[in-house]
Design goal:
Shape: globular
Strand order of the largest sheet: 1-2-3
Largest sheet: 3 strands, mixed
Number of helices: 4
Number of strands: 3
GO molecular function, one term: ribosomal small subunit binding
InterPro entries: KH_dom-like_a/b, RbfA, RbfA_dom_sf, Ribosome-bd_factorA_CS
Radius of gyration: 15 Å
Distance between the termini: 39 Å
Number of domains: 1
Keywords: Cytoplasm, Ribosome biogenesis
Oligomer: single chain
GO cellular component, one term: cytosol
CATH superfamily: K homology (KH) domain
Organism: Ruthia magnifica subsp. Calyptogena magnifica
Order of helices and strands: HEEHHEH
Mean pLDDT: 87
Amino acid sequence: MLEQTSYRVERISELIRRELTLLLKTTTKDPRLSGVMITDVLASRDLSSAKVFYTVTKEDRTVVEPILSKASGFFRSRLSKTLDLRHTPALGFIFDSASNTGARIEQLLSKL
């Protein structure tokens, strides 16, 4: 059975994605996070947690993953200051392998 998300949850997920992208560009000072791109955010229905999907352009995924996990509290506190929510969702960072798969398929198709 498909789980339907409400318009509010989708809207908040998009707001979180935009704010995290902005935070990564402006406030993080770690150069290893400069190649991180937020691809999608899926918030739970009760907005207690959010899965943040990301890709990496420069650094290795194994280097960036623990840094993002460690900085999730920092990102959550910054989001609580900018978003007008009663409770800010807990953030879980997940590597988005779908975008890499799509790029690989495009590369293979261009060779044909």
